[in-house]
Every structure is written in C-alpha cells, then in structure tokens.
Amino acid sequence: MAWFYLLAAGILEVVWAYAMKKSAGFTILTPSVVTIVAMIASFALLSVAMKTLPLGTAYTIWTGIGAVGAFILGITLLGEAASPARIIAALLIVSGIVTMKLASGH
C-alpha cells in the first residue's frame, strides 16, 4: 500500500507544480487553491508512505515522479522544448527511479 501512496503523492506533486505555474505567482484564485490543496495532500501521502519505505527511496521516487511528470506536462500542455538532451535527462531520471525501486527491497 505504501507504493500506492507514494505514486499518488508523486502525481499530486505534478498537479501542484502545474497549478502553481498556472496561478501566475498566486494571483489567480483557482489554480492557487489547487496548488495548496494538492501540496498538502501530496505531503500527507508521502508521509504515510514513509512510515514503511526508507526515506531515501521514498523521497527520491517522489521527486522523480514530480520532475518527470512536470517535464511531460510542460512539453504537452505548455509548449516547452523537447530537445534530445532534455529527453535523455528525463530518461535518466526514470532509470534512476526504477533502479531505486528495485534496490529498495520493498
């Protein structure tokens, strides 16, 4: 169950990062509220996952999901660059996430 909580926390990290971008520096109400609610939920789920999972594993995977997810949303929804170097960097992050999961023993 901890892995499910961690995955949900990572997805919510992507949600709050995107909402924060759309909030225009917290000047637009709806995305500002979404940012704060998603942040609180993301941190809460991460803390529940950390009851079982090692700190290094949980935090690395949480930030990796957030980083790669935000990267994908930036490209698909915000028109950000998808250069070969950025794609390789994202793939390296994904490989690190997979390796961390495999090495965790959980």
User: Major sheet, described briefly?
Assistant: none
Order of helices and strands: HHHH
Extended strand count? 0
Tally of discrete structural domains = 1
Name the shape in a single word.
flat
Instruction: Tell me roughly what share of residues is in helical segments.
Output: over 70%
Count of DSSP H/I helices: 4
What would you call the structural class? mainly alpha
Mean pLDDT: 95
Computed Rg: 15 Å
- Uncertain runs: none
User: How big a fraction of the residues is strand?
Assistant: under 5%
End-to-end separation in angstroms reads 11 Å
Pfam families: Multi_Drug_Res (PF00893)
Protein name: Guanidinium exporter
Keywords: Cell membrane, Membrane, Transmembrane, Transmembrane helix, Transport
Subcellular location: Cell membrane
Quick overview of this protein structure:
This protein is mainly alpha-helical and 106 residues long. 82% of the residues lie in helices and 0% in strands.
